[in-house]
Design a protein that fits this description.
With about 475 residues, the protein is of the alpha/beta class. It folds into two domains: about 1-30 and about 70-80 and about 360-475, Aspartate Aminotransferase, domain 1 (Alpha-Beta Complex); about 100-345, Type I PLP-dependent aspartate aminotransferase-like (Major domain) (Aspartate Aminotransferase, domain 2), CATH 3.40.640. It contains 14 helices and eleven strands. The chain has helices at about 5-25, 55-65, 85-100, 110-125, 140-155, 160-165, 180-190, 210-220, 245-255, 290-295, 310-315, 350-385, 410-425, 455-470; strands at about 135, 170-175, 195-200, 225-235, 260, 285-290, 305, 385-390, 395-400, 435, 440-445. Helix 3 runs antiparallel to helix 12 (about 350-385) and helix 13 (about 410-425) crosses helix 14 (about 455-470). The radius of gyration is 24 Å and the shape is globular. The model has no long low-confidence stretch (mean pLDDT about 95).
Length: about 475
């Protein structure tokens, strides 16, 4: 493909991209393909001869596109969103064109310095104290692993990095039963072992019980273990429950335990002053993470990780072979030493584009609108005799179930709601997912897609009630 061909195909693709964003509602939200259906349409051997781009793109539209779930569809209400936006997409195009590997200041000075600035902007935007310094990671899972590794090295005076574990290294890490599965994965990767993770019970709002945290720390210390770190959730994955950050932080201070706050999704709501109550006490944390690639309209991947002690982070990860040595290291941030990856994408560019295009006020307006839409659905559920909320809904995640008056059996209710969710998703008109809260099958309705409107939300609610009516057992 020569440059003129590239120019023409690029123009055509941008037109297709704009059409896609404008017409995404015409696609089924969740891919309606069967397992291995796409694979059966693809040759198992690579082509020997060059193929024209037109044929390649025709196969993309014919084979690949029908097998895609459309995360940018306004009726995508599953999991948490992985939002994009036009300015973020444009930044991704520039990033791909530059093809820069931004591992250090010397490899792309502007990338390093822009990252320093936009992370400062984000810190101010979400109200973190000045003592925090930010770096972009790929995901919150990686940020949590970085946090636990830094805690491990700090408490052992960086000896495990040098000599490895020995029999005296019996650590304990604490979270709630509602905390994200990435915490357990990080505990295993960090070498602590899954048995070192203490999953503490939650209260009736699905938030960690701080009294049980203190008891667990004291019990572990009496047993000769080292209470190492607590991971508190500012918005759990299941229901966006908010752990009591201040109370947990004060316990950590008393016992010399590291505190990491995982605000992966709900942290974006901190742009609104009305939701700063969620982060009360965050000054007691050692590290904090939230994902602009979830609810701040920035293409995946882009995770904002903030640390109190950048020197401890760098000392945990820094390796300086001769081929990476430069004369500027003492005066700049070499972000390759601020995390696991050596290679780094120019993620700061899309944050810069998004923040400048929308402005902080524009971002706040969209987030506020999503929360308002969700609260309207909460009201509809509360007013409907056959539906019930299963968790508080402080933000834009609604946990509910269908509960006809004549069905009380827990197993039957679980089965009915599972069938309801399958029926809704099978229409292709919306996509929702589930969790279990207090052992009950729970439908999750997440309202945070970039272009979602009131009409989209009300249409999905009607779809839910219509599908439920079809599933309702006939009257005896």
């Amino acid at each position: 493909m020569n440059n003129e061909d590239f120019r023409q195909h690029a123009h055509d693709l941008v037109d297709w991209m704009a059409d896609y964003l404008e017409q995404v509602r015409r696609y089924p939200v969740k891919a309606q393909t069967e397992p291995r259906e796409v694979l059966r349409q693809l040759p198992l051997e690579p082509p020997d001869r060059a193929e024209p781009f037109e044929r390649l793109f025709a196969d993309f539209e014919r084979i690949i596109l029908p097998g895609m779930t459309h995360w940018q569809h306004p009726s995508f209400h599953a999991y948490f969103p992985a939002n994009s936006s036009p300015p973020s997409i444009l930044a991704e195009m520039i990033m791909a064109t530059l093809g820069a590997q931004c591992m250090s200041w010397a490899t792309s000075p502007a990338a390093a310095e822009l990252e320093e600035v936009v992370m400062g902007w984000l810190r101010q935007m979400i109200g973190l104290p000045k003592g925090f310094t930010g770096v972009i990671q790929d995901t919150a899972s990686t940020a949590t692993l970085c946090s636990l590794l830094t805690a491990r090295e700090q408490v052992t005076k960086y000896e495990i990095n040098r000599r490895g574990f020995d029999n005296d290294d019996r650590f304990a890490v604490y979270c709630s039963t509602e905390t994200h599965s990435s915490i357990e994965k990080a505990v295993k990767i960090a070498g602590f072992g899954a048995e070192s993770l203490r999953k503490l019970p939650v209260d009736d709002r699905f938030a960690m019980r701080a009294d049980l945290l203190e008891e667990a720390i004291e019990e572990d210390r009496r047993a000769g273990r080292i209470p190492l770190a607590v991971v508190a959730a500012l918005g759990t994955t299941g229901s966006t429950a908010v752990d009591p950050i201040r109370e947990i932080g004060e316990i950590c201070r008393r016992h010399g335990v590291w505190l990491h706050v995982d605000a992966a999704y709900a942290g974006t709501a901190l742009l609104l002053d009305a939701y700063r109550w969620m982060s009360e006490g965050v000054e007691l944390a050692d590290t904090f993470v939230f994902n602009p690639h979830k609810w701040m309209f920035t293409n995946f991947d882009c995770s904002a990780y903030f640390v109190k002690d950048p020197a401890a982070l760098v000392q945990t990860f820094e390796i300086l072979p001769e081929y990476l040595k430069t004369g500027e290291s003492e005066r700049v941030n070499n972000y390759r030493d601020w995390g696991i990856q050596l290679g780094r994408r120019f993620r700061a560019l899309k944050l810069w584009f998004v923040i400048r295009t929308y402005g902080v006020d524009g971002l706040r307006q969209k987030i506020r609108a999503h929360i308002k839409m969700a609260q309207r659905v909460v009201t509809l559920i509360e007013q409907h005799p056959e539906y019930e909320l299963l968790a508080p809904a402080p933000l834009n995640v609604i946990c509910f179930r269908y509960r006809p008056a004549d069905i009380d059996d827990p197993g039957a209710l679980d089965a009915l709601n599972e069938r309801l969710l399958e029926a809704v998703n099978a229409t292709g008109k919306a996509y929702l997912t589930h969790t279990k809260l207090d052992g009950r099958y729970t439908v999750r309705f997440v309202i945070g897609q970039t272009q979602v409107t009131d009409e989209d939300v009300l249409r999905t609610w009607k779809l839910i009630t219509d599908c439920a009516a079809l599933l309702r057992p006939p009257a005896q």
